[in-house]
Amino acid sequence: MEFLLQPLTLLIFFPLVGVLILLFIPSGNKNAMRWTALIVSIVTFIISLGVLKGFNASNTDLQMVARYDWITVAGWNIQYFLGVDGLSILLVLLTTLLTPISILSTWTAVEERVKEYMIFFLLLEIGMNGVFLVQDLFLFYIFWEFTLVPMYFIIGIWGGPRRIYAALKFFLYTMAGSILMLLAILWLGIHGKTFSLPDLIAQGGIPANIQMWLFIAFAAAFAIKVPMWPLHSWLPDAHVEAPTAGSVILAGVLLKLGTYGFVRFNIPLFPEATLQAAPWIALLGTIGIIYGAAVSYAQPDIKKLVAYSSVSHLGFVMLGLFALNPEGIAGAILQMINHGISTGALFLLVGMVYEQTHTREFKVYGGLWKIMPVFGTIYLIVSLSSMGLPGLNGFVGEFTILLGAWGAGQNGVFYWGNVWFAAISALGVIMAAIYILYMFQKMFMGPQGEVVEETKKHGHAIRDLNWREIVTVVPLLILIFWIGLYPAPFFNLMAPAVNHLVGMLPLP
Predict the structure, then answer these.
(1) What residues does 68 pair with on adjacent strands?
(2) Domain ranges, residue 198
(3) N or C: which end of the chain has fewer CB within 10 A?
């Protein structure tokens, strides 16, 4: 009983309660299924708030640890090992917040096989929370791979016309990188006689030449998931074909599994290799920033534009992480949260208007502001957040990342290209303003577009947001302003853990 009531165990596996209840609800009772999944996900969020309340930010060690022997045969020392620290607490909260928001957004969008849809969504939450909380490499790999299965079915069953192609591409890309990571995990477990991450970090002593190979093996899995340029080609297809809630959770959380992997595993496990690889990772991140912004401008499809913008925004995250100083890493972690909030909100809003018009070609809209003033106001706020307007959340993360990339601050690492990477990446902020404002102008300004007239011909006019849709977006709007105007609590949660992580590096 003590095992089941342990806070982190309860946080990970509570959605399983919803899965079991859903199995016994008659297939025709769709509202009961929706309410069950929503209530269970809200309770899971409340549990995560309880974890936050008991979290001591000044303590750099793992907290609320659950550690039990699991597989000990034949000398294998594999444990059920959970723990939370400043590197993961915000990502757990983001996951538990976006899950009920995503479920609420599907209230009228998903009408077929509702039971299976809700089951897959709750299973996906289990996998995502597990990735952020486990501290045993073997168990981490299980949760990492487990997240593929629900998302594969969410895209493949409830997605768009090319859903099977997109689902397979998503699955195969991620699986290919994961195989290399599995080999590296096996090497570490056999060499260190344990799969415990803290124990392996404490042991150290991995030869520098071996470190680089292991670094590359882990990086392959994480870079595909981010996705970093040039390993990003699966992302636009997955986003475009995924249902709205699938896109929200994919952008908001699943992509962060990759960036989190670099923070949790690559940097502390392979410090010498990290220093060698840092300029090259930063270079790829910088290319991704500019490439993602440039390609976004060329997209006629709103979802594809937002998808490519993720390549650009997560390029900033990678640039900050491999600045290898407290400013860059803290800014990168906060930007993971910001991206999940802003891009998740954009996908929600796109889904709301798509549900009425059944098109994502933003050039055929026009004049929506007069028809949907509430929708237009919220869309403008989220768009300004995504482009990094001061006073909103996106600016805080990007500014801190650029500060770190410039090499400023104590313990900064000055490698070739620092200043150039920061300067070129700053252009990405300007480019984001161009493609986002262009999209907004085409959708909301000017005369009414073709889609408005076409919708009228089918017997119903485009309406503004209803109360359920507003409630769905309001929590994200609150966070957009909170982080933009008062980010100190978020930085305070992660600062000691970030400083401890930087202290592990053999900095000059």
Answers:
(1) 80
(2) 1-268
(3) N
